[in-house]
């Protein structure tokens, strides 16, 4: 969305619906009970805090 808006000076679509789920590499919903979540601190250490701010 951000890249398309910067490059084309317009959003690529009019509306966006988000279900709020994040999926893992197998396409399964990430949840603490399934044990497939990644700690935000781990992401910050590996990728930096900006990546979480954009999300």
Automatic annotation (TrEMBL):
Keywords, in A-Z order: Aminoacyl-tRNA synthetase, ATP-binding, Ligase, Nucleotide-binding, Protein biosynthesis
Catalytic activity: tRNA(Ile) + L-isoleucine + ATP = L-isoleucyl-tRNA(Ile) + AMP + diphosphate
Cleaved signal peptide residues: none
Domain Aminoacyl-tRNA synthetase class Ia, residue spans: 2-55
InterPro entries: aa-tRNA-synth_Ia (IPR002300), Ile-tRNA_ligase (IPR050081), Rossmann-like_a/b/a_fold (IPR014729)
Superkingdom field: Bacteria
Gene Ontology terms: biological process: isoleucyl-tRNA aminoacylation
EC number: 6.1.1.5
Assigned GO CC terms: cytosol
One GO molecular-function entry: isoleucine-tRNA ligase activity
Entry keyword Ligase: yes
Family per similarity comment: Belongs to the class-I aminoacyl-tRNA synthetase family. IleS type 1 subfamily.
Name assigned to this protein: Isoleucine--tRNA ligase
């Amino acid at each position: 969305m951000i890249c398309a808006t910067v490059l084309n000076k317009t959003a690529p679509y009019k509306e966006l619906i988000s279900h709020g789920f994040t999926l893992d590499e197998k396409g399964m919903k990430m949840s603490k009970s399934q044990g497939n979540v990644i700690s935000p601190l781990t992401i910050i250490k590996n990728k930096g805090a900006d990546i979480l701010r954009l999300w």
